[in-house]
Design goal:
The protein is α+β, with helices and mostly antiparallel strands and 151 residues long. Helix 1 runs parallel beside helix 2. The longest helix has 19 residues. The chain starts with a strand and ends in a 35-residue tail after the last helix. One of its GO terms (cellular component) is signal recognition particle, endoplasmic reticulum targeting.
């Protein structure tokens, strides 16, 4: 069982393991929130000191039962949790489904192609301008008042 110091290392090694055997490799996530324990001596000071927020832990594990390889990563950083759950799990899911990896600039190829192409015939809509004021709707109160300028 290998523990990694950074999430990026775990992600790279997990990607390689999934590419080697995508049908048998499994990824598990465990997210737990543990309450902060109070000391008996600190109970008297509890009224004076603010209460600490609970500590959350994310554990990611990639396991291949055929080869017996287990890759683990543990973090308590909130920013890293969202990054790993979003980008990393999406990338690993693509590898498990045997889909090609997508580079960041190729994330939306349709949008880039649409910008390059110019429409050949665009119907132009002409609008007529009139000098008549818009109809009064009545009861328009409740808005902010204009500030007066300096005199």
């Amino acid at each position: 069982m290998s523990y990694f110091k950074t999430g990026q290392e775990w992600l790279e090694q997990s990607t390689l393991l999934i590419q080697a055997s995508p049908t048998t490799t499994k990824i598990t996530t465990r997210y737990s929130i543990k309450a902060v324990k109070r000391r008996k001596a600190a109970a008297a000071d509890a009224a004076a000191a603010p209460e600490k927020p609970p500590r959350a832990v994310l554990v990611l594990k990639t396991f291949d039962p055929v080869s017996g390889v287990t890759l683990k990563y543990r973090t308590t950083k909130a920013a890293e949790v969202s990054r790993l759950m979003g980008a990393a799990m999406g990338q690993l899911g693509r590898s498990m489904a045997a889909l090609p990896e997508v580079a960041p600039e190729e994330a939306m190829p349709d949008a880039a192609a649409d910008e390059d192409e110019q429409p050949k015939s665009v119907p132009q809509v002409q609008t007529q301008t009139t000098s008549a004021p818009p109809p009064a709707t009545g009861g328009g109160g409740g808005g902010k008042k204009k500030k007066k300028g300096k005199k």
